[in-house]
Amino acid sequence: QVPLKPGRSLMDWIRLTKSGKDLTGLKGRLIEVTEDELSKHNKKEDCWICIRGFVYNVTPYMEYHPGGEDELMKAAGADGTDLFDQVHRWVNYESMLKECLVGRMAVKPVAALKGLFTCSHKILGLVNNWNEVYFLKCSPNFVSFLPCVSGIFWHVTESYDWFQTDSLITVVIYTKQKDMNADLVIVDCQDKQLRGEIIMDDHSYLVNIDLDHAVSEDVAVNIAEKVGKVEIILNKKDNVHWKMLGQPCEGHNTFIKRTDRGLFYRKCKLVSKTEVTHDTKLFCLMLPKGTHLRVPTGQHVYLKHIIAGTEVVKPYTPVLPFLPLDFQEPPCHDGVHIYLMIKIYSHGLFTQALDHLQIGDYISVSNPEGSFKKSQVQTSEDLLLLAGGTGFTPMVKLLNFALTEVSCLRTVKLIFFNKTENDILWRNQLEQLALKDERFEVQFILSQPSKDWVGKQGKISSSLLSEFVKRSRRDSKVLICICGPVPFTEQGVQYLKDLGYSQEEIHAFTA
Ligand code: FAD
Ligand code: NAD
């Protein structure tokens, strides 16, 4: 992030896009852009970028880009898809840059094929000499060309099947993954549309079907963990015999890298909004009936909302409704509600819109994302959590998981940095937890304390960390998790490295 000039916020950009000004310089015409043409627009004052086959004139956007002009210029006059995916795949550029759309990249004719390769018995991939790959997909009743961006290679190592009774349809997916669990299966069934995504490390397998007949909203998911079999059970609305499951939709029966799959959203209802501190609220969202989704510990979701006619997306990390003190599997894992602890900024674009949502309103919630793996904790003896402000949110599920499910942990310590006492999230609950469980300790450090504060003060520093971040034994295995404002996280990681902690012992939560 770089500081933007006044008048260059996201809201200012949205206003400019709505002003009717010609932002492409083409007076609304859409053109086909050749590689040669694209490469000519490579200067700050004339900059075109290609993302997923679409070309945008980003010259007017330069000063509004939160990552700075230099970052955008890295893709000037070229294909910026990879760069974009690395930095902010979740940003909905289609909506943000729609007024900057110049047109599509010209695709060289398929006759100019450079190579031909086979992905599996079912799918043939045809590569042309430019940036696009076509797949010829053959099955008894379905033959078509599916265009997709280069670099995506489909392996159909997984497969699915289906069977029916008078009242049920069961879709069975054989993942062959031994540690399959409910966190890895995301199902959405609405109207006649069934979408089931199975996460397998950094890949995902998708079943996406327009069902032949209507089903009710109740969906059950059964998992045979040891053999990796997943069953999605649907209830027929009418007890008719189905001749087929339905028609395949985009991405059906594909196994591709998760980063190559677009984010999927479903609309969730706001059911409650409660105060946590003077500026932070706990939002409770309800998943639709036909959705099976659990957000794993350490992962976040994206919320999408239309603000002034533009889709805006921001990441948030689900928490629990409270910190359970009895170390049982919390009853709040009901699979229906998602709790988000969100700080409302007085000038915040998205959080102001969230704050204005009424109970019963809907907001789009994405599938979970994030690189944290529970196994990182499962082998640790000491867990140290460094949180700044709402950087506390990933620590909530992590704390609960560590104290309820990780028996080898000897100590769990939260070092919580805030501006003032009034900003401390769930202080009471944290203090109670520390009283209840002797493995857990909490330390509050304030950067703008009042005169009455007798506790620690300051910002993250080498000396504060050397005082509080310690192994309980000389050779104990430690995991240090850090989350907060970007400079806090970056400085913290550097200080930890300076103190001798290795990369493997540190996990930084980022987008
Ligand atoms: P903006 O309009 O972007 O700005 C609001 C105010 O904050 C302005 O005053 C601006 O100057 C300032 N500001 C802008 N960007 C930053 C920044 N990066 N750091 C500090 N100040 C900034 N927030 C939560 O409250 N709860 C969460 O659970 C949560 N989870 C997150 C998970 C991830 C992976 C990431 C990357 C962020 C998370 N955030 C969370 C932050 C959230 O995504 C938004 O950035 C935040 O809600 C502000 O959005 P906004 O549009 O209201 O603010
Ligand atoms: P804040 O401004 O209230 O600051 C909280 C504390 O962080 C401060 O008291 C200070 O100790 C420290 N801090 C703040 N700015 C610092 C700086 N420049 N250098 C060193 N230390 C600094 O924090 P907030 O408004 O609650 O913001 C929380 C941040 O955490 C946001 O930027 C949000 O995006 C981020 N966040 C990230 C994730 C994630 O998973 N990546 C999750 C939740 C929140």
Automatic annotation (TrEMBL):
Family: Belongs to the flavoprotein pyridine nucleotide cytochrome reductase family.
Keyword Metal-binding: yes
Catalytic reactions of this protein: 2 Fe(III)-[cytochrome b5] + NADH = 2 Fe(II)-[cytochrome b5] + NAD(+) + H(+)
Organism: Loxia leucoptera (White-winged crossbill)
Any one Gene Ontology molecular-function term assigned to this protein's record: metal ion binding
Domain CS per the UniProt entry, residue ranges: 155-246
A biological process from GO: superoxide metabolic process
The keyword Metal-binding is annotated on this UniProt entry: yes
Keyword entries, A-Z: Endoplasmic reticulum, FAD, Flavoprotein, Heme, Iron, Metal-binding, NAD, Oxidoreductase
Transmembrane segments: none
Any Pfam family matching the protein: Cyt-b5
Domain (Cytochrome b5 heme-binding): residue spans on this chain: 30-106
PROSITE patterns documented for this protein: CS, CYTOCHROME_B5_1, CYTOCHROME_B5_2, FAD_FR
Gene name, Swiss-Prot/TrEMBL: Cyb5r4
Cofactor(s) this protein cannot do without: FAD
Subcellular locations according to the entry: Endoplasmic reticulum
Chain ranges of the FAD-binding FR-type domain: 263-375
Family annotation (SMART domains): Cyt-b5 (SM01117)
GO cellular component, one term: endoplasmic reticulum
Protein name according to UniProt: Cytochrome b5 reductase 4
Enzyme Commission no: 1.6.2.2
Superkingdom assignment: Eukaryota
